[in-house]
Amino acid sequence: MADAGKKKSKEIASPKGTRDILDEEYYSFQGFFEKAQEVAVYYGFKPIDTPVLEHAELFESGIGRGTDIVDKEMYTLRTRGGDHLALRPEHTAPLLRAYIEHGMQNLPQPVLYYQYGPIFRHDSPQRGRYRQFWQFDMDSLGSDKSILDAMIIKMGISILEEAGAQNLSVDINSIGDRECRGAYIKELTNYYKKHLGSLSAVDRERLKTNPLRILDSKDPKTMEVNAAAPDSISYLCAACKKHFKEVLEFLEEMGVGYNINKNLVRGLSYYSRTVFEIVEERGNEDQAPLALAGGGRYDYLARQIGGKRDVPAVGISIGVDRIVASPWYKKLSPRIIKKPKIYFIQLGAEAKLKSLNIIEILRKAHIPIAQSLSRETLSSQLAIAEKLSIPYAIIFGVKEAIDNSVIVRDMGSRSQETVKLGKLLQHLKELK
Ligand code: AMP
């Protein structure tokens, strides 16, 4: 019975579709967030951080039933107190909840916010698709002006380009407002009813819950039906037509390339008027363009989540995981990462004892260093300094510890100089 006592060793791993982000990858994310914030702050956006957990109802009424996100992908939980909560599957409904909760409608409009953090969707994990992933969002709340749609799209493009993306284009569509969308959806529903036999089972079901969603179906049979489906732009009322025309004019004026994609409706049902995706054209016929960001206008979402009035708004979500994993990503370096100018070497017990004091003097003077305080020998520490190509070393031995001095060594020429501690900062400043 040798096997009876053997327990299958428990696998130690993060949950499927999630991962640890560390070291260089962490800095890739951090560098991206710093660049994105720089652009957002430049345009007058303020930061907000909403909770990772919200009432599930916020998304059920906001994103809407009949969407994959709410029907299949939302992580929900029941608390001991009986609350029904969800891990946020997007940032927009929480932002609008915060806007209403804090009475931001009383501020001068629009209010502009950026936010970033993890998003959770129970999707099937694959390359570029995770169950916990990061989005950077920018939103303008409280104005229906078309220049804001264009500004948000342009800001998204600027951030992506500064991160190294090339060959970007904007897929754009307008799905109308209360005035015109009803007539369009009626027409679309009639069309699909005529082609019911050619729709997939999922899409037949969507016809009852959310017919617009059939337009972005990935099912080959449905896609054939979609090719001749009525398009929303032909049904726009005068006000929506004007709004859409203005957005396109702003884009043209800025030289932003766009394709009007009549099948673009996006996976969340709160949108009105402008919907868009920023895609990377991959130049290979076999590869579908990769969506790096998406967004649109959501003028009616405020009421959908229980607000008393409409809050016209427009926003964008940038998918960060795909950007930092792209071959073109520029590896934006976070500001806290400084190239070490000096390698700090300590030798002997007396020097080790005082070495943290010297490091603190250097840190307060903003002089970037590297060190390996656990090492003992000169050769092992010098080898590291050489490997890291650090231009100077400070050698702090027993004699120096007694004399209150250090040796400053030029790692290139190997010349050395003894410098009193009191003069060290001045001396280091004068080094090239
Ligand atoms: P969405 O909120 O679905 O419009 O997504 C906006 C952006 O987030 C997309 O363009 C993707 O870049 C990114 N994204 C969406 N879902 C995932 C996922 N499961 N894993 C990684 N990135 C995602």
UniProtKB/TrEMBL annotation:
Gene Ontology MF term list: ATP binding; histidine-tRNA ligase activity
Subunit details: Homodimer.
Subcellular location field: Cytoplasm
Organism this protein belongs to: Candidatus Nomurabacteria bacterium RIFCSPLOWO2_12_FULL_46_14
Domain Aminoacyl-transfer RNA synthetases class-II family profile: 32-324
Annotated SUPFAM superfamilies: Class II aaRS ABD-related, Class II aaRS and biotin synthetases
PROSITE patterns referenced in this protein's UniProt entry, alphabetically: AA_TRNA_LIGASE_II
Any GO BP: histidyl-tRNA aminoacylation
NCBIfam families xrefs: hisS (TIGR00442)
One cellular component (GO) term of this entry: cytoplasm
Family in the record: Belongs to the class-II aminoacyl-tRNA synthetase family.
PANTHER family from the UniProt entry: HISTIDINE--TRNA LIGASE, MITOCHONDRIAL-RELATED, HISTIDYL-TRNA SYNTHETASE
Keyword Aminoacyl-tRNA synthetase attached: yes
Listed name of the protein: Histidine--tRNA ligase
Catalytic activity as recorded in UniProt: tRNA(His) + L-histidine + ATP = L-histidyl-tRNA(His) + AMP + diphosphate + H(+)
E.C. number(s) listed in UniProt: 6.1.1.21
Superkingdom of origin: Bacteria
Keywords in alphabetical order: Aminoacyl-tRNA synthetase, ATP-binding, Cytoplasm, Ligase, Nucleotide-binding, Protein biosynthesis
One Pfam assignment: HGTP_anticodon
Leader sequence residues: none
